[in-house]
Design brief:
The structure holds two protein chains of two kinds. By secondary structure, chain A is an alpha+beta fold. Chain A has helices at residues 8-14, 30-40, 80-83, and strands at 2-5, 20-22, 60-64, 67-68, 89-93. Chain A has one domain: Beta-grasp domain (Ubiquitin-like (UB roll), Roll), CATH 3.10.20. Helices cover 22% and strands 19% of the residues of chain A. In chain A, a hairpin with a 2-residue loop joins strand 3 and strand 4. Chain B is an all-beta fold. Chain B has strands spanning 3-10, 13-20, 27-32, 37-43, 51-57, 61-67, 75-77, 89-91, 97-99, 104-110, 118-123, 126-130, 138-139, 160-166, 174-179, 182-186, 194-195, 216-221, 229-233, 237-240, 248-249, 262-264, 272-274, 292-295, 303-305, 323-325, 333-336, 342-345, 353-356, 362-370. The N and C termini of chain B lie close together (7 Å). The A-B interface holds A 7-10, 13, 42-43, 45-48, 50-52, 57, 59-60, 93-94 and B 35-36, 57-63, 76, 79-80, 82, 101-102.
Amino acid sequence: MIRMVLPFHLRNLARLEGEALLEVPRPVTMASVLDALEDKYPMLTGTVRDSATGQRRSLLRFFACQQDISHEPLDKLLPEAVACGQEPLLVVGSVAGG
Amino acid sequence: MSKVRLLVGTRKGAFVLNSDGKRDKWKISGPIFGGWSMYHIKGSPADPNRLYASQTSDWFGQIIQRSDDGGKTWEPASNQFKYKGKMAKHQWYDGTPHPWEFKRVWHLEPSLTDPDTVYAGVEDAALFRTTDGGKSWEELSGLRRHKSGPRWTPGAGGMGLHTILLDPANPQRMYIAISAAGAFRTDDGGKTWKPINKGLRSNFLPDPTAEVGHCVHRIAMHPSRPDVLYMQKHWDVMRTDNAGESWTEVSGNLPSDFGFPIDVHAHEPQTIYVVPIKSDSEHYPPDGKLRVFRSRNGGREWQALTKGLPQRDCYVNVLRDAMAVDQLDSCGIYFGTTGGQVYGSRDSGNSWECIVHDFPAVLSVEVQTLP
């Protein structure tokens, strides 16, 4: 089971409390996790990756195992600790202050 | 007694304001979708409890929301706006061809007769339609495929299709407006389109009277006279009496003919309203006085309406979708400001009251008159 931590607004949109728990068949990649996320929560379609380009939205970041994996190819294998549910996969919105 | 429901979209959420027909006390609900930019919320004329809302975010993109109970509860609808066919290009800021890229929905216009049919005006400029209550959207691509499309150029605020007017007398006819391409009309339900910009003059264009390229800010129509349109352009207030075949300037004695919204009195087709803004470089009212101007003769002569509006130190703007009129007698006029105020008039604009002081910046105001 993949554990995914979503930003506040996406949790609200999906009416989700806590982590999103996703069944993702191996091999586990960012793309396959996002497929599972959009399948389980259709209202999140296009909110993490742009529907037209399939790419990560520019003001979001992907973190796993204390690493920024935002610029890794979406079809690259995720760390085993994420794939087995030991560590969460984080979707983080860029900060906007001032 | 009739009731009035205001649908207010702001930079940080939506609000629903309800009042009885007296319009002197308002119950405010919200924020709904707090933290999101609510570009537009509008109810179906065929089913007033059916509402549609455009919810957008720089982080998360576009969401469309639908309510079937007048805004008490909402469900996400489809947010899949896919341009039809081979990707075309429009002109970019540097003059080079640039592919159309979907950014957001600026305006939602429900059908006059079918609650499941809604038109959506989007950035980059295109017109979409749902006929299944928002489950899916299809582009009416004849507009974007018009031969002038490669010459359309975004203004500083983007290239948005922000105005959709449906002709109540002719279901095949509708009007749209795009910043900064101009106004267009279809007479065949959206298959083909015609630029309707003759008579417009825009001095920022190399050819000030070009077929396209005009920064139309808003068009308004009274349903009893669908061939008569009123336009607030980047500069100039314009009028056509022949469905856009030609326009004449009716700015008259306005202190400034720059502005964004324009609207028509519910029962007087010749009575129109604008909110003059100082200039394209200074988006606030002239002299720090927030004044609505009313013309009772279709735009030739204008009267300042100031009672109840701040007449000193006021430097807010009123955006293009942020003015609406109710259907009561006397007609109610409502507008929201970038300073977060929502003003209302119960007497056709003679006097105004501040309904709300401290909302986030108001992007849109719509009103429903309910039985």
